[in-house]
Design a protein that fits this description.
Helix content of chain A: 40-55%
Largest sheet of chain A: 8 strands, parallel, barrel
Number of strands of chain A: 8
Number of domains of chain A: 1
Number of helices of chain A: 12
Oligomer: homodimer
CATH superfamily of chain A: Aldolase class I
CATH topology of chain A: TIM Barrel
Strand content of chain A: 5-15%
Radius of gyration of chain A: 18 Å
CATH architecture of chain A: Alpha-Beta Barrel
Shape of chain A: globular
Order of helices and strands of chain A: EHEHEHEHEHHEHEHEHHHH
Strand order of the largest sheet of chain A: 1-2-3-4-5-6-7-8
Distance between the termini of chain A: 26 Å
Structural class of chain A: alpha/beta
Chain lengths: 298, 298
Amino acid sequence: MTIFTGLSAFPPTPAGEDGIVDTDAFAALVDRLASTGVDSISVLGSTGTYAYLDRDQRNRAVAAAIEAVGGRVPVVVGVGALRTSWARELAAAAESAGANGLLLAPMSYAKLSDREVSDHFKAVAGSTGLPLCIYSNPGTTNFEFSHDLIVELSHVAGISAVEMPPRDNEGYATEIDQLRERAPDNFRIGYSGDWCAAPAFLAGADAWHSVVAGVLPEPAVRLTRAAMAGNVEETSRLQALCTPMWKLFETYGSLRTIYGIAELIGLDVGIAPLPVQGFTGSDQLPGLSEALERMVAN
Amino acid sequence: MTIFTGLSAFPPTPAGEDGIVDTDAFAALVDRLASTGVDSISVLGSTGTYAYLDRDQRNRAVAAAIEAVGGRVPVVVGVGALRTSWARELAAAAESAGANGLLLAPMSYAKLSDREVSDHFKAVAGSTGLPLCIYSNPGTTNFEFSHDLIVELSHVAGISAVEMPPRDNEGYATEIDQLRERAPDNFRIGYSGDWCAAPAFLAGADAWHSVVAGVLPEPAVRLTRAAMAGNVEETSRLQALCTPMWKLFETYGSLRTIYGIAELIGLDVGIAPLPVQGFTGSDQLPGLSEALERMVAN
């Protein structure tokens, strides 16, 4: 097992209304995750609210997580930022803090061109000794990676994986084949969008970058083991248990829903980064507690 | 003339690769603008790269601009930020520094709901005594304001204007009528997208939020005076002179183009916020110098 393969759990980052990270609550979250069988922990992903935290708060969170994990599993750090100089700075800080890998999304305000994204990724990869995973998330970054661009970047030293957005079930095998044909052999292809983990693994994906595993690791570990072993029947059974939860994620988005799950299971994840409002209290999602109950059933 | 009417010039914010604002160069830029006949100066708009500057750099830029303008024209400050708490903090800092108004875009990473944007705007407006202009810029913020939401916000104390994105020429009169019918009488309706200033003014718009006026104020002042006076013939003549420039803005975006203009006229605006690359040096836009020459012809 190398980094960027298997199940990576993306925990939320507990913070208050002012965006100050609660490092004790965060350490407790990742400490719990590190012993559940996940293959890595990715801090400061999209639902880890990296976009809503200052660079100093992000560095505080990274240091707390790495200390709490204590080397039990690799720690990947999201270093996406609107400025190239900021992403490089965050990458250097993560490396100094002892991170094992980096995750980089082409966070945008002005829509970026392929050349701008390519130069940005090369500049960040060139500034660190850590392996870097391309994070393709068109829904939040407003940038769509072409296969050509992913392949170009896969040949850049240090860029060793991609996290792809969800597709139609039929699309995974074709996409993975197309990318594998042109990328180096050790380039890892993973997927985000929790509902796609089962079909993507069965189609040969290397990794699941999982939001739900950040708060509910056990069912995600079971699904990963069955699907990576190619056990279609058990994968289908577990996927069916998760389906109501995946429907809520697809309909309402993972970010807001994760705060609702945390509230239901009594996990301290702080509050959602306003203006983003978590589904908690009187806004709790109808159907979430049933979906949760079904998902954690064995 | 009140704030949020007439021509507002949006200067770029000179900064280096690290995002540190060159306050001397910025003061020189706004000092020059303040005596050209523009009705206000809006600092830290989209092409003022507010999204690419830290809050402390933004506050430095605001202080430098207000001092350089010295009360000759009102200064409006862009306070958009991904977090509500940050936008409130920036609004408070702008107010303390002596700003005359605020401009707020619903900057997003996770796509925002109408309710989230509404609560965000109310929270910021409620934290300041300054009049606030809603900045609708779906291309960069990934949020589309409905007329219903604009009308709802127009009735909130302190929210006194909207900056709308460009439309088809025929759309301005209808849109302005529809909004005026439901918004308070003193609610100001302006447009961005420099190519739309002439048709929008002729259709009754109150304001032009102008990128080009941030570096080339004179032709923008002439166009504004003719169009606000309802002088259709002179407006058409001036609009024709600007058309090649508008075509470049529409095709390549204002942000990258403005660095090319600055290079051609010898204005120090720093470098574009990488990963965004300005059209300068060997990347200079073909046709820009001809468009520029035509635009400044009388």
